[in-house]
Amino acid sequence: MTDPLGAARIAIIGGGIVGIALARALTLRGLGEVTVFEKEHRLAAHQTGHNSGVVHAGLYYKPGSLKAELCALGRVAIREFCAEKKLPYREVGKLVVAIDESELPALAEIERRSIANGVPDLRRIDEVAELREIEPHVAGVAAVHSPQTAVVDYAAITEAMAQDVRAGGGSILLGQEVVAMTVEAGRVRVRTAVSEQVFDRVIACAGLQSDVVAKLVGADPSPKILPFRGEYWSLAPERNDLVNGMIYPVPDPRFPFLGVHFTRGVYDDIHVGPNAVPALAREGYRWLAISPKDTWESLTWPGAPSLAKQHWRMGVDEISASLLKTRWFRKARRFVPELRSRDLVAKTAAGVRAQAWGRDGALLDDFAVDQVGPVTLLRNAPSPAATSSMSIADYVIDHFLTVRAD
Ligand SMILES: Cc1cc2nc3c(=O)[nH]c(=O)nc-3n(C[C@H](O)[C@H](O)[C@H](O)COP(=O)(O)OP(=O)(O)OC[C@H]3O[C@@H](n4cnc5c(N)ncnc54)[C@H](O)[C@@H]3O)c2cc1C
């Protein structure tokens, strides 16, 4: 492909893992002079620094979707990057467990998708004894096991990628929120509270603020971001032997993030969660963090009645489990019957997911990218976007940047 970028000046909005992976790829490929704007005073301050740390192997995603394709490529890229930088990468493995016979058809669908997506070394397990060889304390009738599903520290990975950006001559400006953009003669004037610069191309990877940033260049307000908080409980360290790797429920493929699950983190901490409750602020990490503006915008979005009608039961279930520890505990104990309520200690490290939803109330399933003249906008990059960050970067460069903006 020809490279029309030449010595372009490229701005990236957002210092999460996707923005920094893009900055790194552009720098290493010599595609321009890169400047990253991050509104917080540190990198990875939002989703990237508040997630489960799982390197997904691609079990759930619709075959042929961008999620399926970029997750497979991204997993390998993250593994190689961690090896190169000597960052922890632990293949603790994931067991997706059917608790009873009623879940077998859904488990079969996960198995079908996993095979279509080329999940490495995937194995179907129908013997309880075999399940217990992998997770001695688990309950269930069948499972699929993905031994190469891994855990990492995404904030540390982002910092290591940022070092490559700086070493390659790129700039990362912290504490600089982009508040305005104007397209002038095919170039973009980018303004923060303290600076104003002109760039040839801009790529916005603004996570929870994706729709706000899109509006700065007059893009369609849809899809909007619906913030969903995910909360975790920690397992008391003396009970760490209850879980070897990851134990997940059979998910509804439309909402693979739902359902209480157990994950052994890269530093051997075991967390139980996350759930998914509506956040009352885009960056609302607690129930009491309320933004009247964000909440009003979500409630008055044209798709709100349709979403509420379809999913109110699920919403009530998730909210009650968030507010009542006993409900959460009961959900978790179905998978690990030896779990006691007192084994769940301190609710920790909530994260807020940036989930895009359309005017019709439908949640966008796949990654989504928009182009407005010289500005490329990542409109939907939820899980597994951390796993896929390096392949999303290559995808955006190859499909949106190395072609002319006009
Ligand atoms: C609870 C939870 C669990 C998850 N678990 C996993 C998992 O196990 N594996 C996985 O692969 N994915 C997981 N994810 C998803 C993953 O964390 C995200 O998909 C990924 O981090 C997205 O990265 P990002 O760079 O797009 O967004 P972010 O990390 O949110 O970064 C966006 C950045 O843009 C900045 N910004 C916004 N507006 C502006 C502006 N105007 N000017 C300047 N800067 C701006 C923000 O401050 C922010 O730092 C999880 C997410 C959550 C919330």
TrEMBL record:
Residues of the FAD dependent oxidoreductase domain: 9-397
Cited InterPro entries: FAD-dep_OxRdtase (IPR006076), FAD/NAD-bd_sf (IPR036188)
Keyword Ion transport: no
Domain of life (superkingdom): Bacteria
Cofactor(s) it depends on: FAD
EC number assigned by the record: 1.1.3.-
GO MF entries: oxidoreductase activity
Gene3D superfamilies: D-Amino Acid Oxidase, subunit A, domain 2, FAD/NAD(P)-binding domain
Transmembrane spans: 6-26
The entry's keywords: FAD, Flavoprotein, Membrane, Oxidoreductase, Transmembrane, Transmembrane helix
Keyword Signal part of the UniProt annotation: no
Family from the record: Belongs to the L2HGDH family.
Name of the protein in its database record: L-2-hydroxyglutarate oxidase
Organism: Agromyces larvae
